[in-house]
Amino acid sequence: MRFPEYRPRRMRRTEALRSMVRETQLNVRNFILPFFCIAGKGVKNPLASMPGHFQLSPDVLIKELREPVDRGIPAIILFGIPSKKDSVGSEGYSKDGIVQRAVRQIKSAYPDLVVITDVCLCEYTDHGHCGVVMNNDVDNDSTLDLLARIALSHANSGADMVAPSDMMDGRVGAIREALDESGHESLPIMAYSAKYCSGFYGPFRDAAQSAPKFGDRRSYQMDPANSDEAIREVGMDVDEGADIIMVKPALPYLDIIWRVRNAFDLPVAAYNVSGEFSMLKAAAQNGWIDYERCMMEALISIKRAGADLIITYHALEAARLLQDNVSKRNK
Ligand code: PBG
Q1: Taking the model in full, what pTM does it have?
Q2: Confidence of residue 324 (pLDDT cuts 50, 70, 90)
Q3: CATH assignment of 24-330?
Q4: Known catalytic residue at 195
Q5: Helix (H) or strand (E) holding 108
Q6: Dihedral Cα 145, 150, 152, 155, nearest 10 deg
Q7: Domain segments of the chain: what residues?
Q8: Which one of 117, 201, 205 would you pick to mutate in the ligand 1 pocket, going by the greatest count of ligand atoms within 8 A of its CB?
Q9: What tens digit of pLDDT does each residue of 203-256 get?
């Protein structure tokens, strides 16, 4: 196609023309909104680095869910901040743990909302690592048992899906087996399959109080330089029974989302993580960028790269924008 016979600008002339040939659409049904829940009543602690997000006690969380649910956001993912931590993260798999209680309350208030729970130990261990620490290292195989217990207790509390984020080898299989043996064979697993060891988790670790007390997570999370390895990681999770495969973070790893999308035929989720959110908020607060525009551009890029589902702290703001724009256009 050559100029002047073909003029790409012809189809860019008006919004009506542009929207007819737009290749990618965002939809609220693609979004999963994360929440941090904490024990207590009436608690709503603002998170300094994540404006608009809070540590919420279950009663407040129930109220905060009204708008996302009314706007059609289909799913949330829950993270818990326990009242006490220990070396084996026991509140993570206690029947009366914070996530277990929150799930029961949310499901009774919003039976149709898909409640996904993050399955990991880092929020519950006093050392902040995602597994059992032995000889200054995170021990893989003894951690699997605890992860399976966490997943099972979430399932027993009424969670609709579990999402292991620890990056231990073999955890999807271990969780699948534990669920199947207990009558939860219909409960899906969304696996954090290609989860990189990323600096972009910083704000989350403040929010969830889950930063490791010594060392880092390089011995279990993926090296940011690797791409073929992501395909192997995702392949293992698929073989072990994952129902949704995830790439995390999203924006610095759009190439990985694209490769995973093309290599596998399962639904792909991308986690637009806390640091990606905070960067836009901080730049916007300084008046350096147009927040709404950059947010929508970031989200569409994740979808365009091949993600079916986007876990994002922007979900509610993006839903408002998508819906308010539609109602404006229809006027
Ligand atoms: C915990 C977990 C982390 C995130 C989700 N689950 C942090 C980590 O691995 O340290 C990060 C999410 C975000 O930054 O928004 N296992």
Answers
A1: 0.97
A2: confident
A3: 3.20.20.70
A4: yes
A5: helix 98-109
A6: -160
A7: 24-330
A8: 201
A9: 999 899 999 999 999 999 999 999 999 999 999 999 999 999 999 999 999 999
